[in-house]
Amino acid sequence: MDIQQLIATVKAMVADNKGLLAMDESFTTCNKRFAAAGIPQTAEARRAYREMIITAPGLSDSVSGLILYDETIRQQTKNGLSFVQAITDAGMVPGIKVDTGAIALANHPLEKITEGLDGLRTRLAEYAQMGARFAKWRAVITIGNNIPTYSCIEANAQALARYGALCQEAGLVPIIEPEVLMDGAHTLQRCSEVTEQVLRAVFNALYAQRVVLEGMVLKPNMVLPGLGCSDPVTADEVADATVACLRRAVPAAVPAIAFLSGGQSGELASARLNAINLRHRLQAPWALTFSFARAIQQPALEIWKGQEANVAAAQRAMYHRAWSNRAARLGQYSPAMEVVNRDKDIIAEEAAFKTANEVEII
Ligand code: 13P
Description:
The chain is α/β, with parallel strands linked by helices. It has a single domain (3-356), classed as Alpha-Beta Barrel (TIM Barrel). It has helices spanning 3-14, 27-36, 43-54, 70-73, 83-89, 120-130, 150-169, 188-208, 235-249, 266-280, 294-304, 311-329, 346-351, and strands spanning 19-22, 63-68, 93-97, 101-104, 112-115, 134-141, 173-180, 217-218, 256-259, 287-292. Strand 9, helix 10 and strand 10 form a beta-alpha-beta unit. Bound molecules: 1,3-dihydroxyacetonephosphate. Residues 22, 138, 177, 260-262, 292-295 line the site of 1,3-dihydroxyacetonephosphate.
């Protein structure tokens, strides 16, 4: 294992206050989102959509790396350039989702286990050879009556740790993603307790499998009340609960924490990431960044609608969301940044935005 190579990749993934854009939806998830937006669910539509994302002008101003899906890493732009090459040429780092999805955990109603360990060593070698430099595996934990169970948490932690060790062996940085879902009516406090329990189990398993903490990225949920919980919550409360939970459970040797958005709107995800950084960035031992899918892509998907004529407008919307999250890493995001006139040149305007107090975190 080349630890220095892993550390260099992590640095590139969090450099210059940028973050990650997850565009690794499986066929099923991507098709579901296309269907909701009235877009045909074909391989060509998925390719065109992913080309729109990868070639968005200026995306690399705020995005350091892109997480691809198995179908996508094998695809090309309409001009015949492989997506991996297009990403690398734009100065971003290509990554790959390597789990094969979450299925029902036997004997555990409503709970899931993520699959994909079979043949993983061979698949990782192929992805590395294709140019991927990091990987992602998502475990899903649901809060409800008497769940999550100890056995569900342990089974998922085991799988994450075995995946992490295999990634590092192959020279790929593992993104370790244990997601506690927002589904349900649980309180912020309950989410905090479950998230802490899950993170402790995950790090115990990572130690047992000898995963090098300096060569990984943690991708957790923010600590949030469930979607069905009526208690109001401010961005500052989310920020404080999230960082308190992480402090208890995540070793300082982990270089970066890249949050998932989990179904929050783009604006809320940016506001909460901003509060996390504004209130805690200077004391936290880890970089606090983003690895969002929906919170960056959703507005662009709705504008694109599968039409070539909408590509430029969709790219501008995506640029804006990515840029907002880079500002949030600096604690410089403000809801006023959402008042954009879509006819104006957002890219030029935001490029002029001064990131005066930027500091390199690692
Ligand atoms: P969301 O930001 O939409 O939650 O997706 C992040 C992700 O990569 C899920 O695995």
